[in-house]
Amino acid sequence: MDHVRKKNSNKSAKQISFSIDTHELDHHNEHGFLKNTTHHDHDDVVDELVPLPVYIVNGVFFTLFFSVAYFLLRRWREKIRNSTPLHVVTFSEIAAIISLLASIIYLLGFFGIDFVQSFITRSSSYDLLLEDDIEEEEEEEEEEEDNQNHKLCDSIVSCSPQPPQPSKMMIDSSSSLITICDEKDEEIIKSVVDGETPSYSLETKLGDCKRAASIRREALQRMTGRSLNGLPLDGFDYESILGQCCEMPVGFIQIPVGIAGPLLLNGVEYSVPMATTEGCLVASTNRGCKAIFASGGATSILLKDGMTRAPVVRFGTAKRAAELKFYMEDPVNFDTLACMFNKSSRFGRLQGVQCAIAGKNLYMRFRCSTGDAMGMNMVSKGVQNVLDYLQNDFPDMDVIGISGNFCSDKKPAAVNWIEGRGKSVVCEAIIKDEVVRKVLKTTVASLVELNMLKNLTGSAIAGALGGFNAHASNIVSAVFLATGQDPAQNIESSHCITMMEAVNDGKDLHISVTMPSIEVGTVGGGTQLASQSACLNLLGVKGANKESPGANARLLAKIIAGSVLAGELSLMSAISAGQLVKSHMKYNRSSKDVSSIVASS
Which domain holds residue 569? Predict the structure, then answer.
C-alpha cells in the first residue's frame, strides 16, 4: 500500500509541476507576443506616416544631428578664439540650430516612445508573473501540508519511527548544486579552449577572481598539454591584483624572503627584507650589516627627489621646435606651466623642464615630486595637461608620444646617471681596521686596491654605464621584490659607483655608494599586496606618510642604499680574501635530490 501511495503521489506531483510549468510558459509567451506586437505596431505606424522606410529616415536624422552639431561646435570654437560674442549668429548658424532642434525632437519622439512602451510592458509583465509566483507558492504549501498529514497517518499506523527525510533532501540538494557548479565550470573551460570565451574576460563575466584563475589555469593545461602542478593556486587574494598588478593570473610564484641586519643607518636599526633565490646573497649582506654596525653605523643622505617623463613632439621645421624649447626653458613661463602640471594631483609638483632637440623633433624632460608614490602615472598625467595647454599656442605641434625615451625609464641611460631620476642618494661608512680584519677577513689596503682595479678600472674597460660597482643590482632586486617595487626599474635603480679609500693614517676604510636614480614608492602597485605590505611595515615605511608626504619613499631609498653599501662591503671582502668560490659552494649549492622531491610531491 505504501509503495502504491508513494507512486501515485509522485505521479500527481509531476502532473501539478507540468501544469504549472505549462501555465508559466504560456504566460511568458503571451506577454512576449504582446511586447513584440507593440513594437511592430509602432514601426507600422511610423511607416504609414513617413513615405520612406524607417531605417532611411532614422539615418537621415542621425546624420543631420551629428553634422550640424559638429558645425556649431567648430563655429563656437572659432568665435571663442576670435573673441566674437556667441549670440551674434549668421543665417547658416540659425539654419543649423533649427535643424539640430528638429533632429532632436524626431529622435526623442521615435526612440523615446518605444522605450516608454517597452518599460510599461515590462512592468506589467513583472506584476503578472509575481501574481503567478504567489499562487504557485500557495499551491505548493497546501500540497506540502497534505503530504505531511499522509506521512503522520502512516507513522501512527505502522508505529515505527521514520528517518528524517528533510535532512536527506538537503544533502541531496546540496550535492546536486555542487554537480551543477562543476558542470558550469566545465562548460566555461570548454568555451575558453574552443576560443568562444576570451580568457581575459573571465573575471568580468564570473565576478569571482579565484574561480576565474582556476578555470583559466585548467583551460591552459588542456590547450598546451602541459601540467602546472607545483604552481600554487590557493592561498592568494586574487581580488587584490585585479586591475592593478597582473592580468589573466593562473597562480603565483613563491620566492623566499630572508632578513639581513640589523642595519644601523642614521642612528636607527633596520631589519632589511630580501626576496631572492640566490644562495649566499642574504648571508653576505648580513655580514656587511654586521661590519657596519660594529663600526658605529652608516650615514645615508638624499640628494634629489624627482620623477621624470619626457614626451616627444614634432614640428614642420626645426625653427618652430626651437621656439618651443626657448618657451619651455624661459623662467617667466615656469609658473604657468607648473600651474597646468600640478592641477591633476595633490602631490605632483613640477620642479623643472629640460629640453633637447633632434632636427625638428623636441624632447621635453619634465621632473616633478610625487609624494610617497613612485610616480610614473602621476607625472604622465601632469605632462598630458601641459601638452594640452601648449596645443593652444602651438597648434602645429604634433605629439608623437607621451614618452620619447629621454626620461629614461627601464633602460640604462646616461641622462639618469648624470641628472638623476627618482631618488638620488649617497651612503657612507667608516669601517674600523679591527672589523675589517676580524669580521671581513681581509685588509684595508687589499680592499682599496681591489675596488680601484675592479669597480673603477675594470668597469671603465667594459664601457659600463652606471655600473661601477660589484653587485648593487643583487641587493636592489631583492629589496624591490620584497617591498612590491617594479622589478624592471632595477635597471636604472642599480646605477651605482662604489668608492673606497684608506683614512685615519691608513688604518680604517672609508666606503661609499652613490646611487643617482633609485625609483621606489610605498603606495600603489605591488606595495598594496599583503606580503609586500608586511615587508614595508617591517621597515616602518608602509603606506603614505600623512605628516610629511614623500618621507616614507625617501626613507626606503636610503635603506636600499645602506643595504647596497653592506652588500658591496661584504662581497668585495670575500673576493679580496679569496673566499667567493668557497662561500658559494657552501651556501649556493644543494645536496638534495631535487628530482626525487618533485616526484614525491
Answer: 257-305+422-588
Q: Which residue has the cell 647596497?
A: 564
Answer yes or no: is pLDDT of 178 > 50.
no
Write the DSSP assignment of 67-81 as a string of letters.
Answer: HHHHHHHHHHHHHHH
Instruction: Choose among 351, 363, 348: nearest CA to 399.
Output: 363
CA 29 to chain centre: 47
Examine residue 115 and state whether it is found in any structural domain, yes or no.
no
Work out the average pLDDT over 293-318. 97
Domain count, the chain: 4
* Nearest-angstrom CA–CA distance, 508 and 63: 83
Mean pLDDT, the chain, whole residue set: 83
| 62 located within any domain | yes
DSSP per residue, 199-215: GGGHHHHHS-HHHHHHH
Q: Same structural domain for residues 579 and 465?
A: yes
The predicted pLDDT at position 154 comes to 47
pLDDT digit string (tens) for 123-166?
A: 444 454 445 554 555 555 555 555 554 444 444 334 444 444 43
Compute the distance between CA of residue 79 and CA of residue 59 in angstroms, rounded to an integer: 30
Please check whether residue 144 lies inside any domain of the structure. no
- pLDDT tens-place string over residues 443-458: 999 999 999 999 999 9
Going 368 to 371 to 372 to 376, the CA torsion angle's sign is negative
What is residue 52's predicted lDDT score, i.e. its pLDDT?
Answer: 61
**Is residue 36 predicted with pLDDT exceeding 70?**
no
**DSSP secondary structure of 113-129:** HHHHHHHHHHHHHHHHH
The catalytic residues are 278, 410, 486, 584
- The reply to whether 323 and 402 lie within a common domain is yes
8 A C-beta contact, residue 272 and residue 539: yes
Q: What is the pTM (predicted TM-score) of this model?
A: 0.69
| Kind of pairing between the strands at 312-314 and 349-358 | unpaired
Give the Cα-Cα-Cα angle 533, 534, 539 (nearest 5 degrees): 95
Q: Which H helix or E strand runs over 386?
A: helix 376-393
| pLDDT > 70: percent of the chain | 75
Shared domain check, 545 and 464? yes
- In sequence order, the 6+-apart residues with CB closer than 8 A to the CB of 245 are 525, 526, 528, 529
